[in-house]
Amino acid sequence: MKRFSISDIESLIGIKAHTIRAWEARYNLVPPKRTPTNIRYYEEEDLKHLLNIVTLNEKGYKISRIAKMDKVQINDLVLQLQADYNNDTVQVLRLSDAALKYDEIAFAEILSGCIQELGLVDTMDLVLFPFMKKVGMLWQTGAIDPSHEHFASNLIRDRMIVEIDKLTKPDRKDPKRFLLFLPEAEMHETGLLFARYLLKRCGMDTLYLGQEIPYNDLKKVIAHYKPDYAFIVLTSLNLGKDINKILTKVLDYMDVPLLVAGSLISEFDILLDDRLTPLKKVCEIVEFLDDL
């Protein structure tokens, strides 16, 4: 059974360690286990219980009130709240719980419910992107295993492909051509697939190359396809902090305008270049495409 430190729990549920300790001291909420050397740890059931507590707290239940409930009462209330797909915080927590358990059925049901109630664009913006960013950070810190990230990413990828296939591309006079790819060392396709969805929805033409495209191939592809724009997404923490170095290298291999999105773009100062357009938010991508 996997064990979690209090710092792991802090990252997983988004509540500070000192708050968790205060709940424990004041209300005896989820007391930790201890090793023979008195180091505190939590097990998966403790994590699930804390996730439920946070879910109720996010919905306005005071901790003092939650502390008077037993686990069955808490579970029943959370089950009622889970149908509220407009509460993105609750849905992120639910996806986190399903991913930790490798529960494919639960993960797919949560994802379907969000898309049905919110639509794919808001689901990506409010639920899936925050969830994937959180999962990536947890993987980097060792709070979860790489397999948890792969499990969630592949389920989201499969659903994105389904949603793209369901779209009917509208007729558009002289649609722009977009080359979509991920540069070397970038393997996370979720954002790029979402860009493909938005482009198809707008009636644009796309050539989708996917992940880790060698730089030397770009000139050949561009010469053949003749895109109006190239589109990349940067999200992997493995790329390091020098994002501008990557952008400069990509620009060196192409002579078309480059659109770049992804969580890393929001975290760093991006170089100024006439051919480069950073799109830091989903609404910025949508507005850019609407203006074409």
UniProtKB/TrEMBL annotation:
Entries under Pfam families matching the protein:
B12-binding_2, MerR_1
Q: Which organism is it from?
A: Pedobacter cryoconitis
This chain's protein is named MerR family transcriptional regulator
Kindly give the CDD domains that the UniProt entry links to this protein.
Answer: HTH_MlrA-CarA
Query: What PANTHER family does UniProt report for this protein, alphabetically?
Result: MERR-FAMILY TRANSCRIPTIONAL REGULATOR, REDOX-CYCLING DRUG-SENSING TRANSCRIPTIONAL ACTIVATOR SOXR
In terms of InterPro entries, this protein maps to: Cbl-bd_cap (IPR003759), Cobalamin-bd_sf (IPR036724), DNA-bd_dom_put_sf (IPR009061), MerR-type_HTH_dom (IPR000551), MerR_fam (IPR047057), Meth_synthase_dom (IPR036594)
Q: Name one GO molecular function term.
A: DNA-binding transcription factor activity
Q: Where does the HTH merR-type domain lie?
A: 3-72
Which positions make up the signal peptide? none
Annotated keywords: DNA-binding, Repressor, Transcription, Transcription regulation
Q: Which domain of life is it from?
A: Bacteria
Q: Does the keyword Transcription regulation apply?
A: yes
